[in-house]
From TrEMBL:
<feature type="domain" description="O-methyltransferase C-terminal">
    <location>
        <begin position="118"/>
        <end position="326"/>
    </location>
</feature>
<keyword id="KW-0489">Methyltransferase</keyword>
<dbReference type="GO" id="GO:0032259">
    <property type="term" value="P:methylation"/>
</dbReference>
<dbReference type="Pfam" id="PF00891">
    <property type="entry name" value="Methyltransf_2"/>
</dbReference>
<dbReference type="GO" id="GO:0008168">
    <property type="term" value="F:methyltransferase activity"/>
</dbReference>
<keyword id="KW-0949">S-adenosyl-L-methionine</keyword>
<dbReference type="InterPro" id="IPR012967">
    <property type="entry name" value="COMT_dimerisation"/>
</dbReference>
<dbReference type="InterPro" id="IPR001077">
    <property type="entry name" value="COMT_C"/>
</dbReference>
<dbReference type="InterPro" id="IPR029063">
    <property type="entry name" value="SAM-dependent_MTases_sf"/>
</dbReference>
<dbReference type="InterPro" id="IPR036390">
    <property type="entry name" value="WH_DNA-bd_sf"/>
</dbReference>
<keyword id="KW-0808">Transferase</keyword>
<dbReference type="Pfam" id="PF08100">
    <property type="entry name" value="Dimerisation"/>
</dbReference>
<dbReference type="InterPro" id="IPR036388">
    <property type="entry name" value="WH-like_DNA-bd_sf"/>
</dbReference>
<protein>
    <submittedName>
        <fullName>Methyltransferase</fullName>
    </submittedName>
</protein>
<feature type="domain" description="O-methyltransferase dimerisation">
    <location>
        <begin position="21"/>
        <end position="94"/>
    </location>
</feature>
<dbReference type="InterPro" id="IPR016461">
    <property type="entry name" value="COMT-like"/>
</dbReference>
Amino acid sequence: MTTNPTVPDAGVDDRRAISALVFGHMAAQTLAAAVRLGVPDRLDDTGRPAGDVAGDLGTDPAATLRLLRALAALGLAGEPEPGIFAATARGALLRRDRPDSLAAFVEMFLDPAMVAAWAKLDDSVRTGRTTFDEVFGVDFFGHLAAHPHLSRTFNASMRQATAAVSAVLPGAVDLRRFDSLMDVGGGDGTLLASILAGHPHLRGVLFDSAAGAAESAIALADFPYRVEVVTGDFFVGVPGGCEAYLMKSIVHDWDDAAVTTILRHLHAVVPDHGRLFVVEPVLPGTADGSAHPITYLSDLNMMVNVGGRERTEEEFRALLAAGGFELVSAEPLPAPAVFTVLEAAPT
């Protein structure tokens, strides 16, 4: 048998790694089923019999035991005694009553609406097109608009996903030079609230669609005299009146043409001395292991589901220039966030 001398021989660990990737979707569905059923909400740190958990949930006792064993194997539960299951610190993050819960994040990203287009990833690679539109007959955000419950889950998942950035961004970005900041596409106001708390001098404006900003009153309740909520469509225009503007997890949702439209609307209102802050993951120039694999999976998720993409720093630089901005700096946020803050000035 002829071997390629430039390819290293595969070992046992390499085979196991491939097997782990193959079974990864099964682990994800196990996680999704547990959250949808409410299993983590029925576990405590002392341990409960699987039969009691099944009784609470109205599920089949034998099947529930099998699910709990799988959760224990994945580190999301513990089995201190045979048939007795307790919460782990990791699994407790899936409880809905925790302020740092990730339950909605799990529900959204493992919802059939999010997963279905992935089955056609190879079609997206062949054509470059977004397969969500082909599966559902409408684009992702149009689908959300037609399904209010899913839209609420999406908004909640974005809030939970923003928690890591909200914890570190206010101390990582110097906003003392500005008197006002607008969070464009700021959703329920979680990030803006953390910025206002960290910068008491700032006046804030939350700008999003009516659906996106629907629950913002809760997060922004502590700042009644320092914040305003404005609804609209950033493809139509962006309100003026602020010195600094911020967009987190907006740019990666759209292709270059759509982002350029948003940037030009921002360019029309950002003052000459103002700044635009774009908060997104940034891919390295090569896949050299410096970026978390999730960033590359997110790039594929953008491709199959919404038509957007993750970008390198140079791609951001070119995109900002097309919208009338010059990239001033790109500073990664501290862990656990996996985002970079790109600061841009109008030209």
